[in-house]
């Protein structure tokens, strides 16, 4: 174990702070970098991982967290991505309970605070990794590299690219057992001295390594069983390199991905929320100029590894070895070696690897200050400039994560060839009502990726709303020909075909959608509308009833049943359906309105009046509700009240059909009554 301070540490241009001061400083740097995103929205994957994840709700069984993936889907399902993060989901659920619902501020603040705490604790981690594990007379851990560990922790706190893993075996070998890697490599490779196996047994190293290995295997087995003993199914757009034609091209492209990840650690300026779908074009031949980056990466790694193994300086060996372990080992699950992953590059998987990088960076700077003391001032300026760049980039990037609009737009300059980027920009614009601008982004997404069925589906929907039905039908037909089990596209195709009066094709499309998604209430609702247009009333009612069985709060289906029964003269049945609907949806003003109309026709005026007034309290600016209430009062003989609501209806909608005629009829009647009065 190291008993002296690290020789380069006193050359570092940093004050030697007390432990608590150092931790507070690092925590403040972390807060400074990310605090401007605390009040941002839920963005990108948050919609599926948090907003739509039923496992966060108090009504969902807590046990679901352990059997479902990160997105709330059962791990044994073929559609699951097998992302198993139960502790993360548990923190989301606690956040939901504490905040009393889905409020993004609580989630963001917790993440920022956790990063600040982790960054502060990294001082102790870096101190042990650099200076070794040593204790004072009171049993407290000594920090033999206070300045270097502080600088590494500051770099970690401020690094703009920020998953879960550990490096216990290397820690045990190098720090607990204090194995001399240089001496061991000399014995094994050069056979200078025989290896004393009994010494290793006395240290207990092999026993602890065996226990850790067994524990790791048991965890992998448990994970495999939880996943349903099957790997996740990814497509070519998720990870193009894993679908390359030859093993050689796969290996080359994987290594190119590694070099890009390394570049993000070195220069985290070009950051993107998604790197798939053409963002990183594949290397298809050995003559591609990008092969240089692979060679450069491995030259640097081999150089570092040789120094870590063969340097006679024990402090250098320990720091470089543990830095490389912390850099590489957490990245291994994302490297496509053991199994195919569902991404090209994911900045989130570099969180722990960035700690290894920061450790190596701090070591390198300390070495520079030690060797080039004459240029100390220049080196200080460079270190300060690098820290300032990191802090500014962190602040800028966290600001971009405040909203989907800024996040998606920022990716356009980084990955202009990424169809998913254009798709998300278009979707964000469409959600905000700017469908005209969304069309151009959807078209670009389809141009970049001609089989992008989700972009085709969304573009077809917008064209449908713009009444450009022919092109919408072509797009949606192409989408279902590419992906025949795309239920949403089948339903939307049916809606377009219904509008084009291609009723037989529309019915077939709806049933295809239901075949591929059995529990599809919206499709049953649209199928009911098709049947209603064809005067197939019984079929329409059955379809809408199926929609309400699958989704009891399907307001449109309930309302359409009441209206259809009203229009066909089945007032008693319409009343029963309306009351059943209001038991499930007691504050739905559209159902109240329809039921009030039915009750008025049944001459249940008082009860009808109550529903009309209740509906108006919820939606006071509904011209049709004022107009129909006026008709009720007109029939009921409450002419002044009828006059009042006719006038309110006309004020809200002067072109309301029939209302002005009824109002004029009422005025004539009032005039007659006025003149006939004695």
From TrEMBL:
Occurrences of domain DUF1736 (ranges): 230-302
InterPro entries: O-mannosyl-transferase_TMTC, TMTC_DUF1736, TPR-like_helical_dom_sf, TPR_rpt
Spans traversing the lipid bilayer: 112-135, 200-222, 254-271, 291-310, 322-343, 349-366, 378-396
GO molecular function: dolichyl-phosphate-mannose-protein mannosyltransferase activity
Keyword Cytoplasm: no
Membrane topology summary: Multi-pass membrane protein
EC number: 2.4.1.109
Pfam families given in the database record: TMTC_DUF1736 (PF08409), TPR_16 (PF13432), TPR_17 (PF13431), TPR_19 (PF14559)
Keywords of the record: Endoplasmic reticulum, Membrane, Repeat, TPR repeat, Transferase, Transmembrane, Transmembrane helix
GO terms of biological process kind: endoplasmic reticulum unfolded protein response
UniProt keyword Endoplasmic reticulum present: yes
Pathway: Protein modification; protein glycosylation
Cellular localization per UniProt: Endoplasmic reticulum; Membrane
A GO-annotated cellular component: endoplasmic reticulum
Ranges occupied by TPR repeats: 419-452, 453-486, 487-520, 521-554, 623-656
Family per record: Belongs to the TMTC family.
Name of the featured protein: dolichyl-phosphate-mannose--protein mannosyltransferase
Organism: Amphiprion ocellaris (Clown anemonefish)
């Amino acid at each position: 174990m190291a008993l002296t301070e690290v020789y380069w540490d006193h050359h570092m241009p940093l004050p030697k702070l007390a432990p608590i001061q150092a931790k507070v400083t690092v925590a403040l740097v972390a807060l400074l970098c990310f605090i401007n995103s605390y009040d941002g929205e839920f963005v990108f994957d948050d919609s599926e991982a948090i907003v739509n994840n039923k496992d966060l709700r108090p009504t969902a069984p807590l046990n679901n967290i352990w059997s479902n993936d990160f997105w709330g889907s059962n791990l044994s399902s073929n559609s699951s991505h097998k992302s198993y993060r139960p502790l993360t989901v548990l923190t989301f659920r606690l956040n939901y309970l504490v905040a009393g619902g889905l409020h993004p501020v609580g989630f963001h603040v917790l993440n920022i605070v956790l990063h600040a705490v982790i960054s502060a604790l990294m001082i102790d981690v870096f101190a042990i990794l650099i200076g070794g594990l040593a204790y004072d007379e009171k049993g407290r851990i000594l920090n033999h590299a206070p300045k270097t560990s502080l600088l590494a922790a500051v770099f970690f706190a401020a690094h703009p690219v920020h998953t879960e893993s550990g490096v216990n075996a290397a820690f045990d070998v190098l720090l607990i057992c204090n194995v001399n890697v240089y001496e061991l490599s000399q014995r094994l490779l050069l056979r200078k001295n025989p290896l004393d196996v009994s010494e290793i047994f006395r240290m207990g190293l092999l026993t602890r390594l065996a226990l850790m290995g067994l524990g790791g295997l048991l965890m992998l087995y448990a994970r495999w069983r939880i996943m349903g003993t099957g790997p996740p199914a990814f497509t070519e757009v998720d990870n193009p390199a894993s679908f390359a034609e030859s093993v050689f091209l796969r290996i080359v492209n994987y290594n190119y991905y590694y070099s890009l990840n390394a570049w993000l650690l070195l220069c985290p300026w070009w950051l993107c929320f998604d790197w798939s779908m053409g963002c990183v074009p594949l290397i298809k031949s050995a003559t591609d100029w990008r092969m240089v980056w692979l060679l450069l990466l491995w030259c640097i790694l081999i150089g570092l590894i040789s120094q870590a193994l063969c340097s006679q300086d024990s402090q250098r060996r320990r720091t470089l070895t543990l830095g490389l372990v912390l850099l590489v080992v957490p990245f291994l699950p994302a490297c496509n070696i053991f199994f195919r992953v569902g991404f090209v590059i994911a900045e989130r998987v570099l969180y722990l690897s960035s700690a290894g990088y920061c450790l190596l960076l701090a070591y390198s700077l300390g070495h520079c200050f030690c060797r080039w003391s004459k240029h100390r001032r220049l080196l200080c300026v460079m270190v300060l400039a690098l820290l300032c760049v990191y802090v500014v980039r962190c602040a800028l990037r966290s600001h971009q994560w405040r909203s989907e609009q800024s996040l998606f737009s920022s990716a356009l300059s980084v990955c202009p060839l990424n169809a998913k980027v254009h798709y998300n920009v278009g979707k964000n614009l469409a959600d905000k009502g700017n469908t005209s601008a969304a069309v151009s982004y959807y078209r670009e997404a389809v141009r970049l990726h001609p089989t992008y069925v989700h972009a085709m589906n969304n573009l077809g929907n917008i064209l449908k709303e713009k009444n450009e039905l022919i092109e919408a039908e072509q797009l949606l037909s192409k989408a279902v020909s590419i992906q025949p089990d795309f239920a949403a596209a089948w339903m939307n195709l049916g809606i377009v075909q219904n509008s084009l009066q291609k009723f037989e094709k529309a019915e077939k499309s709806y049933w295809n959608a239901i075949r591929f998604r059995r529990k599809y209430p919206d499709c049953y609702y649209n199928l009911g509308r098709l049947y209603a247009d064809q005067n197939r009333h019984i079929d329409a009612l059955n379809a809408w009833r199926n929609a309400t069985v699958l989704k009891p709060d399907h307001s449109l289906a309930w309302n359409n049943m009441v209206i259809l029964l009203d229009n066909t003269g089945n007032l008693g049945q319409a009343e029963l359906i309306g009351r059943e609907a209001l038991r499930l949806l007691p504050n739905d003003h559209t159902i109240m309105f329809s039921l009030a109309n039915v009750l008025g026709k049944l001459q249940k005026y008082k009860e009808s009046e109550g529903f009309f007034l209740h509906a108006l309290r919820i939606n006071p600016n509904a011209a049709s509700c004022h107009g129909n209430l006026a008709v009720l009062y007109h029939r009921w003989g409450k002419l002044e009240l009828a006059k009042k609501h006719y006038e309110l209806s006309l004020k809200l909608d002067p072109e309301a059909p029939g209302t002005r005629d009824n109002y004029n009829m009422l005025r004539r009647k009032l005039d007659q009554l006025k003149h006939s009065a004695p």
